[in-house]
Amino acid sequence: MVFTTHIFLFYFLPLVLVIYYLLPRYRNAFLTIASYIFYGWWEPWFVLLMMTSTILDYVCGGIIASPKSTPTRRRVALVSAIMGDVGLLAFFKYYAFTAQNLNRLLPMLGVSSMPLLQVTLPIGISFYTFESMSYTIDVYRGIVPRAQSFSDLSCFVSLFPHLVAGPIVRYSVIARQLASREHTLKKFSYGIALFILGFAKKILLANPMGVVADATFAAASPLTVDAWFGGFAYAFQIYFDFSGYSDMAVGLSRMFGLVIPKNFASPYLAESITDFWRRWHISLSTWLRDYLYVPLGGNKKGLRRTYLNLTIVMLIGGLWHGANWTFVVWGAYHGLLLAFERWRGKQTIYQWLPKPGRVGITFVLVLISWVLFRAPNLSLAWSYLEAMFGARTHVSCSALLAGEIYTPHNLAVMLLCVSLSFQPIEIYDWLEHLSWRRALVLVPLFLFTIGVMFTQTFNPFLYFQF
Amino acid sequence: MSRRFQLLFSGLFLATIFIVPLSQAGLEIYQGQLPEFFDVFTRVPKRVNLRTFETNIENRSVYATAVRPWIQSLLFMALRDPGEKALLGRDGWLFYTPDVRYLVENKPAESDTEPENPVLAITTFSRQLSQRGIHLIVLPMPGKPSVYPDELTHRAHMHDHDFASPTRELISSLQTAGVETMDLYETFLSLRQQHRLDAVEPYYLAQDTHWSGTAVRIIAHVVARRLLDLGWAQTGSTEYTVNSMYLRRRGDIIRMASVPSLTQTFPAEEVHCFQVFDKETRNLYKDDARSAILLLGDSFFRMYETDEPTSAGFIAHLARELRTPLTSIVNDGGASTLVRQQLSRRSDLLRGKKLVIWEFVERDIRFGTDGWKYVPLPRD
Questions:
Q1: Which residue of chain B has the CA closest to A452?
Q2: Domain boundary at A180, A207, A229, which?
Q3: B257 contact residues in A (CB cutoff 8 A)
Q4: What is the residue extent of each domain of chain B?
Q5: Could you tell me which chain A residue has the CA closest to the CA of B25?
Q6: Active-site residue A321, yes or no?
Q7: Nearest Cβ partner for A399 among B1, B106, B158
Q8: In chain B, what residues touch A188 (CB-CB under 8 Å)?
């Protein structure tokens, strides 16, 4: 189910809110059932997959936390849980990609090729796998106690607000809240306000920018100015789409009394790539830091190892987004930029510029990486970059793209995206001081956004595919 | 924010999300129906059933239906946004988005198999007909943006001299494969060059995806000349005459966009048509199934022929040029495959035929309904 649909907004959400608040007990169990329905709405069978992953982590977490367990037994349980989770992810997300690539090499080595299976990617598998894996690792590290009940752990893994597109929540963040949490009107209204703003970001900004980005990326040979316009459009689409979803997730969680952390902090105001990764998809970058970068040795094993670790982490981070060489190159690009900045003592080569210059150059570096992220393959990504840098001949029909993308609507939305992305006030701060005036602005915004939602057929959530 | 306003704010949000399903259910009960929502309990929860249920909920929502036109009108009035299906050009011209996408987008990777390969489908059809001694002539019809790119965007002016639709590659491939294919792009290009000098009526309608009455008449003449030059058709003995007339017509782009304020902004367009009559009987032109010539086509052949004012479309004008009635199968948006499937079911229609004229609009090369499937000919 998608937040920005009729079925979610007018049927699922009201029904779940009513039953949740009418229930005197078993609210976590109810949230789990509701979350399974939410997830199963897309493909009912995949609920079993998520339950399998949860059961595995619950059992392994129990073994690890058991006082009777020997260190070896604990280690075996940890490795089993990780292998189980990674195995599920590897099979469903990377099997086809691996088979396709290996099948190019294996015949040369005289080995028979791998069968090409049609594997459907379960929505949000990367998110919930990382969440459940973090539970077992944290139990092993002694950061959190084992889950009190299977219901608690399954509620944490399946919790519908953050289930399919994050933020990637840690069990440590939510464990205590699952046992006991406060439901206040302040929390509820704050959650509503966040939900409305996220909903508006998605419908009013991300979707129109998505239409522009799709048109330019699909064009046979966009003109240089169109390619840049399309690149900007995609940068804003992905930001407002993903941050909009995260805001809605955080807002919905608050409506159910749960506080989960924000996922973005004005990422396009970053002054370096290092800074960008402190602000973009914070829950993923901190997850990768704590569960990959640090175990690899982080920056404790010398400079060369630090650069290598950064690159490895970003490569895996890229691959986490999808089974495609474009994501691998995207990850490598960021990894190399991070390593380069680390080599310069966390400084960029444009450090001497005034702040707007630093922000602008960082944004352009990120925008170039979004081309790799958006393009369906490396060859098309390269063509698009050629178009951006004027190294591509244009066919005459490309001129028509202007008629599709430079409409007053698209230009107005682009302008709004620019002004919202490059201003310093974050919506979380803006909502911290939620006055009645601000709240009353949000109500017509909500009504208008619903109206616009009724008119849109283009409504994808980009991060669902991850 | 005080507790009172938190309560008010939360109440307004909850009222919004509750009022829609409750009033929808209330209305359905009032109309004597079981609320649509209960449908979810009557089907096996499979992916396909859940999608159908969700689509039904959205389509039957009285709120969505009532609010949508208002929002569309607001977006059009404030931001000149005519919706997802239409693009606003210059001088009051509207364009159909798929027509533009066809020209701008990357061609999909070459495919050797049907239904993705139009060249394969067309050459196969040509061979099938040839085995029965029937000639085929193909008319890929330029979309409006191919003929009037400058009316979509000023930037296209720079490419006036070299504007080339990707369809011309298809035409070239078909000609290489020995399929007789007419290049109407050249025709329209030279017509437009004359148009600039003589200021005649446009060859496409400003609010419609289709051609004007004037273009119909000219292209019918050009095609007839070609058929006669090839010796694939002979001039008959039926004399036709034309009656010039004007009618007001609401463009199909406005209909497809479904934005109410577009209707107010764009009044019905005046169209100059030429109705074809049998000179002797004074009856309007009518097809004759016994004709040696069969036309297959889409809405370009339907325009003015079976819809208003009737007998003023391409078929009637070609008949007039050739002085003989023709046979036709027309399928809106289905000229790639559906029209041949219709032919396949009508064994009588190919009997005695010497020539088939097959027209399809260029966007159908990529977006044609059912693609480009292999379709057997009807039994002899």
A1: B71
A2: A180
A3: none
A4: 3-86, 100-367
A5: A11
A6: yes
A7: B158
A8: 6, 10
Which of A154, A180, A206 is at the close of a domain?
A: A180
How far B146 CA sits from the closest chain A CA (Å)? Answer: 8
Catalytic residue among A162, A281, A321, A334: A321
A contacts of B46 (beta carbons < 8 Å): 44
Q: How many domains does chain A have?
A: 2
pLDDT in tens, A349-386: 898 999 999 999 999 999 999 999 999 999 999 999 99
CA distance A232 to chain B (A): 19
Considering A129-138, A302-311, B43-52, B192-201, the range whose residues carry the highest mean pLDDT is: A129-138
Question: A65 and A197: one domain?
Answer: no
First to last CA, chain B: 82
The answer to whether A192 contacts B9, with C-beta atoms less than 8 Å apart, is: yes
Pick B58's closest partner by Cβ from A6, A401, A412: A6
A99 and A239 in one domain?
no
User: What integer pLDDT is reported at residue B17 of this predicted model?
Assistant: 94
Secondary structure of B260-290 as H, E, C letters: HHHHHHCCCEEEEEEEEEECCCCCECCCCCC
Q: Which domain holds residue A216?
A: 187-271+348-465
- Per-residue b or e along A420-444, where b marks 16 or more CB atoms closer than 10 Å to that residue's CB: bbeeeebbeeebeebeeeebeebbe
Q: What is the mean pLDDT of residues A205-217?
A: 95
| Inside any domain, residue A161 | yes
Q: Which residue has the higher pLDDT, B333 or B107?
A: B333
Q: What number of other Cβ atoms are within 10 A of residue A193's Cβ?
A: 27
Provide the shortest C-alpha distance from residue A413 to chain B (in Å): 10
Q: Which residue out of A256, A400, A441 would a mutagenesis test of the B interface target, given it has the greatest number of B Cβ atoms within 10 Å? A: A400
User: Tens digit of pLDDT for each residue in B105-155?
Assistant: 877 766 666 667 889 999 999 999 999 999 999 999 999 999 999 899 888
